[in-house]
Amino acid sequence: MPDSPARRLVVAITGATGAVYGVRLVQQLAATQGIETHLIVSDAAVLTLHQELGMQRREVEALAHVVHKNRDVGASIASGSFQSDGMVIAPCSMKTLAAVALGLSDNLIARAADVVLKERRRLVLMVRETPFNLAHLRNMTAVTEMGGVIFPPLPSFYHKPESIDAMVDHTVGRVMDLFGVAHTLAPRWAGMKAASDAQPDT
Ligand SMILES: Cc1cc2nc3c(=O)[nH]c(=O)nc-3n(C[C@H](O)[C@H](O)[C@H](O)COP(=O)(O)O)c2cc1C
């Protein structure tokens, strides 16, 4: 029997703050059997990777199975005939959000997202900006109306994270859940009673 084909996920890292989300996601996918990761890193993301993590483009790209250049709008992932489970933009800048919302496929990240939407596959945008202006909000609405998932990387505190890594992992795990990719990045909530012996007075 031939091996079943790998599941494929496209990951893009753009120049919003929070490069760690993209890196952590690609690291996790690399450690997961049966997932073929296709990675695109924007030029602005090269700046945030360096500023926030002290990482060079090549170090991040080394984690992926296939690397595409953002200017290569003729890459495999630019066509709907390329089979994939979908795409995550982690983090997603307001510029790339706007391109996706408008169907403005002038680079590979925007084109690959456009393809994922037109093929009715899963698109997750880890949008990051604060505060939002009306253009940002309208663009998020437009992407939601097209079937995309707006997933701002907002930390939660109910699981009592003890480090930034734990916060990042919790968020990345929730994104992997959206694609049904198994992980052990964060414990799953089992209710207040399981979380603590002490219960609040109500
Ligand atoms: C250190 C740094 C942090 C940035 N943070 C954000 C951010 O959180 N959100 C955002 O939309 N843009 C942010 N930007 C601006 C984007 O990088 C810029 O709009 C860029 O054109 C986005 O291009 P891209 O989507 O092709 O990566 C940041 C830029 C730098 C250098």
From TrEMBL:
It comes from the Bacteria. FMN binds at G15, A16, T17, S42, S93, M94, K95, T96, R128. One of its GO terms (molecular function) is flavin prenyltransferase activity. The keyword Flavoprotein applies. Signal peptide: none annotated. Transmembrane segments: none annotated. Dimethylallyl phosphate binds at Y158, R174. Residues 8-178 form the Flavoprotein domain. HAMAP family: ubiX_pad. Belongs to the UbiX/PAD1 family. This is Flavin prenyltransferase UbiX.
